[in-house]
Amino acid sequence: MTQKNDKPLLQGVILNPYLHYGTFIALLLLFCLCILWELWLDPMVAGGSIYFLKALPLMFALYGVFKGNLYTMQWTAMLVLLYFMEGVVRWYSDISILSQRLGMIETILSVIVFFGAILYVKPAKQHAKSYQKK
Q1: 3-class DSSP state for residue 44?
Q2: Which site in 6, 10, 36, 71 is 20 to 30 Å from 117, CA atoms measured?
Q3: Which residue has the higher pLDDT, 53 or 46?
Q4: Is 124 a member of any domain?
Q5: Which pTM does this prediction carry?
Q6: Residue 52 forms part of a structural domain
Q7: In a domain, 53, yes or no
Q8: How many whole angstroms from its chain centre is CA 10?
Q9: CA separation, residue 87 to residues 14, 28, 100, 130, 134 (Å)
Q10: What is the mean pLDDT of the chain?
Q11: CA 43: distance to chain centroid?
Q12: Burial class (CB in 10 A: 0-12, 13-18, 19+), 8
C-alpha cells in the first residue's frame, strides 16, 4: 500500500495496515484517556482541571496518523514520549490507586503508539536509504 501524498520515490513500498490502524486506535484511546482522566475520572483538582489541555497536541496528530502520513507518524512517535514520561511518573508517584492505574494505561498506550509508528515508517525509510545509494 502506498500513500498518495508521498513522494514518487516511495512508490512500491508496502506499509503494514495493521500497524497503521493499530497506531491510530492507540492514539485515539490515548487522546480520550487524557481528556477523561483530567475532567472526570481522577482530576488533579476536584471538579475537573484545565490539565485536560494536555490532549491538545494529540488532536493535531490524529488526522495525519489516520491518513497514514509518514511525516506525521514520525513526529507523533516523538510526541508520545512526553505522554510516556507523564504516565510513568504518575503511575509510580500518584497517591490515588485509580490515578496509578490510569498512568499505567497511559504508559502502555504511548508505547503502542511509539512502536506502531516507528515500525510503520521503517520500510519507507529503508527504501529511501536504498534509493539514495543508487
Answers
A1: coil
A2: 36
A3: 53
A4: yes
A5: 0.89
A6: no
A7: no
A8: 23
A9: 33, 16, 9, 37, 43
A10: 90
A11: 22
A12: exposed
The C-alpha cell that represents 54 in the structure block: 494536555
Structural domain includes residue 2: no
**pLDDT band of 2, cuts 50, 70, 90:** very low
Q: Is the pLDDT of residue 66 over 80?
A: yes
Judge contact between 48 and 34, C-beta under 8 A.
no
> What nine digits make up the cell of 25?
486506535
Q: Domain range spanning residue 111? A: 15-41+60-128
Residue 41 buriedness (CB in 10 A; 0-12 / 13-18 / 19+): middle
Helices within 2-134 (DSSP H only): 17-36, 56-67, 70-93, 97-133
Q: Find out whether 123 and 15 touch, Cβ atoms under 8 Å.
A: yes
Query: What's the domain count of the chain?
Result: 1
> Which cell is 61 given?
496528530
For residues 74 and 70, what is the distance between their CA atoms, to the nearest angstrom?
Answer: 6
Hey, what's the cell of 79?
510526541
Report, as an integer, the average pLDDT of 88-117. Answer: 97
Cell numbers describing residue 87: 504516565
Contact 119/21 with Cβ under 8 angstroms? no
User: 6-34 pLDDT, tens per residue?
Assistant: 455 567 788 999 999 999 999 999 999 99
